[in-house]
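target protein:
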Amino acid sequence: MTKVKRSWDMLDDEKRRATVTAIIDFFECERNEKIGVVAAGEILDFMLQTFGSDLYNKGVEDSVDFIKKNFESLEVDMNAVLKK
């Protein structure tokens, strides 16, 4: 059977399994509720669909800001070298 990868699902299989396990553990430890793999997977899917793209976009924005700051610093350094 072919596995369908949804556009909002940015996790590899290993990370997905680990996160599903973490959700199951959270419900058991924090809420004293037992949920299964299917329910935990649905919770994860809901969270990814709801704000996964927002988290991704924030990461991209942070990366752009970081690169801009480093290029500004590099430009200052290069100008200092040119003026000697």
